[in-house]
Design goal:
The protein is of the alpha+beta class and 433 residues long. It has 2 domains: 2-197 and 325-408, P-loop containing nucleotide triphosphate hydrolases (Rossmann fold, 3-Layer(aba) Sandwich), CATH 3.40.50; 202-306, no CATH class. It has helices spanning 56-72, 159-164, 171-177, 184-193, 202-218, 223-234, 260-269, 300-318, 333-344, 403-408, 421-432, and strands at 2-8, 17-20, 34-37, 40-43, 45-50, 99-107, 110-118, 123-130, 137-143, 149-150, 194-197, 241-246, 272-281, 287-294, 321-324, 354-358, 375-380, 386-390. The strands form 4 sheets. It has a 7-stranded antiparallel sheet. A 6-stranded mixed sheet has the order 11-15-16-5-17-18, sandwiched between helices. The longest helix is centred in the last third of the chain and has 19 residues, at 300-318.
Length: 433
């Protein structure tokens, strides 16, 4: 699970912001929405609210930037720039400073802190600490222009890997590539345990549909297939079952000039299609059989639910961490809240999966769903920089205040401020002409 993230000088985030997902000592509510990890209570879910362009998505993109560099920088070649270098642009000289991201997380019951500062061309600082037996230890500390300092707990090749690590590569990535024993579990945490979806657009949903179609075809009787079927059918979609069937290519003609290799790839990628089964009724409205629909014939809400449902079932089965933007996309609020609650119930979430997400759906600001310390609000200050506040840290906010109403009326901040004077005047001028 993730305990906290700290970000500086990344996109709209200028000064240090820290989101700590551990249980607060302040008034917050009494829901048991936490998991104890190494004697620290961490929220199973955390939600971020804020107006459009307030910066909530940029925090989630910091997760993506970090994982991208960890998973891919070992393949960078000399002179490659670091694409995720996106410093704050509304203040002089910030583009001369590094982006900074620090993640504090638990791997099994062991606490780790990974710190990264990077510029456009190189890694400026990289540190990995952990707490064996509850005591802090440094695995390595890398500062640009100096030899890497290795701690006593580092197991595996050191100097050879240090020598072959380029200035624009992470040592974590290069060490994992070379099977350094101390590094592999941390690398695999970012590769396998942390799943980030900055947005779920049509392309993402289509890719997920193809992925789940293959899983349903290959493992029709698996626990995943049964759970996905049960979830989709339970949430008022009108669907009786979902399955995957092999695509019939005989009626589809490919262009004559299409290379054979590309044709084969298309047929492999789209080998299976998801089918949904519905009741069929006769002219007297009596049930008379079943009818299959292609997934493309279903509503956008159903297709979003399928994509999101598959992600969530995977996370619950494996104890993964999900970071998702626009979690509520195309979903009814009651379905959204149901999906969130799955992470709070040990029956559904026995392995401690965690959900961190951003949303505009104020109906989820319910004291029966979240404690105050699970809710974060974001807005930009007068200098265009993103600021975050934890709801449990707002002074004078009584415990049972109607957060949804207060949020929408702007009493908590984080809402859109609409000033339409210029727009109205422009419309009037257009009318005059």
């Amino acid at each position: 699970m993730i305990k906290s993230i700290e970000v500086r000088n990344f996109r709209s985030i200028k000064d240090k912001v820290v989101l700590d997902f551990s249980k607060s000592n302040r008034k917050k509510g009494n829901l048991a929405n936490y998991r104890s990890v190494s004697s620290i209570s961490i929220a199973s879910t955390a939600v971020i609210y804020g107006a459009n362009a307030s910066g909530k998505s940029n925090l989630l993109k910091a997760f993506k930037a970090l994982t991208y560099l960890i998973l891919h920088s070992a393949k960078f070649t000399p002179g490659d720039t670091l694409g995720p270098y996106e410093p704050f642009k509304l203040s002089k000289n910030e583009d001369k400073h590094p982006c900074f991201i620090e993640l504090e997380f638990f791997l099994d019951q062991t606490r780790y802190i990974y710190t990264l500062a990077y510029s456009k061309e190189s890694i400026e600082q990289e540190t990995l600490q952990y707490f064996p037996n509850g005591r802090e230890a440094t695995l390595y500390n890398r500062i640009k222009g100096r030899d890497i300092h290795f701690g006593d707990y580092f197991i595996g090749e050191k100097k050879i890997i240090e020598k072959i690590t380029l200035p624009n590569q992470l040592f974590l990535s290069k060490a994992a590539e070379n099977n350094a024993e101390s590094i592999l579990p941390v690398f695999n945490f970012f590769k396998n345990n942390l799943k980030i979806y900055p947005f779920l657009n049509k392309y993402n949903e289509s890719s997920l549909e193809r992925f789940y179609a293959k899983r349903l075809a290959d493992e029709p009787d698996s626990a995943f297939a049964k759970k996905l079927n049960a979830l989709i059918c339970a949430l008022d979609t009108g669907i009786l079952s979902i399955s995957a069937k092999e695509t019939d290519w005989k009626d589809l003609k490919f262009p004559d000039n299409l290379p054979e290799s590309l044709r084969q790839k298309i047929q492999e990628d789209f080998k299976y299609k998801i089918k949904t089964t519905h009741e069929f009724f006769d002219e007297n409205n009596q049930k008379s059989g079943l009818v299959d629909f292609d997934i493309e014939e279903e509503s956008t809400g159903t297709r979003s639910l399928l994509s999101l449902g598959g992600i969530i079932i995977d996370a619950l089965e494996k104890g993964l961490i999900l970071v998702i933007d626009e979690f509520e996309k195309n979903l009814h609020p009651l379905i959204t809240s149901y999906l969130i609650k799955l992470f709070h119930e040990k029956l559904f979430n026995p392995k401690g999966a965690q959900l961190i997400f951003a949303t505009h759906d104020a109906t989820q600001l319910d004291e029966d769903l979240f404690n105050r310390d699970q809710i974060w609000l974001t807005q930009k200050n007068e200098f265009g920089a993103t600021e975050f506040v934890r709801c449990s840290s707002i002074n004078g906010l009584r415990l049972h205040a109607p957060l949804d109403k207060w949020y929408l009326t702007g009493r908590l901040g984080g809402t859109a401020i609409i000033n339409d004077t210029d727009f109205v005047m422009a419309l009037q001028e257009e009318g005059i002409e």
